[in-house]
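Bench log. Compound arrived from synthesis this morning; before running ITC I wanted a structural hypothesis for how S-adenosyl-L-homocysteine sits in the protein. Inputs:
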Amino acid sequence: MHKVILRPRREKSILRFHPWVFSGAIADIVGDPREGDLVGVFSSDGKYLATGHYQIGSIAVRILSFDEDPLQGDFWVRMLSRALALRKACGLDGSAATTCYRLVHGEGDGLPGLIIDYYDGVCVLQAHSVGMFRAKGAIAEGLRQVYGDRLKAVYDKSSGTAPYKAGLDLVDGYLYKGAGWTGDEARVLENGNQFCVNWNEGQKTGFFLDQRENRQRVGQLSRGRNVLNLFCYTGGFSIYALSGGAVHVDSVDSSQRAMDMVDRNVALNGFDAGRHTSYTADAIDFLKAVPEGKYDLIIVDPPAFAKHRGALKNALRAYQRLNEAAIAKVAPGGFVFTFSCSQVVDKEAFALAVFSAAAAAGRSVRILDRLNQPADHAVNIYHPEGEYLKGLLLYVE
Ligand code: SAH
């Protein structure tokens, strides 16, 4: 195997099980690894530390194993079984009310560069690294062994996530199709609510599984309320609000495709169409035009405003402006559920942006809860960067 030799004292983070080797920590590379190849990582005095996928870039090695005897034949089956065991332990896999969850959350499952979402027997995979992209055949085979007859299909949706510079053949498609499988959609249940998921046309793997528990919270507080769901995508929060007894829900997203799916999901759950209105619009413009007090529950779940550190300052300003508008508009005694999924915006910075927004809006605002990503988006304790979703539940008078 190719060897990556670290500079003196640069082995410390690996000894603490951090799953990345940065290019600046490398003294020498012995052999000629191609991007995506397995490499052994060694300290400057020649001690074996770990094995991982090599890639050209700031993260040079993504660690897959810290064991002495790395990556034996059953590696994928072992790792995928571990991931499934966690989802079983949390009551997600095998639940009658929820038939979709994230099976593999990258570093959180010891598999940096890999995301797998499970939709009632269909696994949708996104490789974020060359190594995972190259391993996708073996991963699909591992999924067949782990799920057995339950597995209906495995779809690779890496074209937007895998590095395009590495000369990979980035064409999405099925890695496995069970007998009789057709189409690109599944109907799933999430806490008893029905959703149609289309991984081919939808964003990411087709559905935002990370908001499952926060949607339930919205459902619990929606009875008798007029709800506005901004950046609604396929209407996750809207469906929970309707089943929770909202008087009326308005859903807003700039994507027409997403809004078409919201309408399908409203119909699928059998709600009276008169209780829901879809708007294909810019959420910020829409909010500006909202009369004060019209809504007594507003959900604000924008896309990541900061994708890298350089964008942090502008992103915080954007979060502040958006939240100020939502806080200003919500009816007295109303709730605002506000989120940020930007990994570079930490909890404290986000809370500060929302505090500034509340102050600028001049309303009395209390924090009722701090919201997070759920258990199937587990955070590796040695890789706190994996914690990305944060939210606040506000009560506004
Ligand atoms: N709350 C959703 C996930 C939101 S993802 C859920 O529970 O599933 C962010 C969404 O914001 C995407 O659907 C994207 O289409 C939408 N979006 C991005 N920019 C927007 C804008 N300026 N106005 C309205 N929607 C926007």
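What the model suggests: The pocket of S-adenosyl-L-homocysteine is lined by residues 203, 208, 211, 231-234, 236-237, 252-255, 258, 282-284, 301-303 (CB under 6 Å). The radius of gyration is 22 Å.
ITC booked for Thursday regardless.
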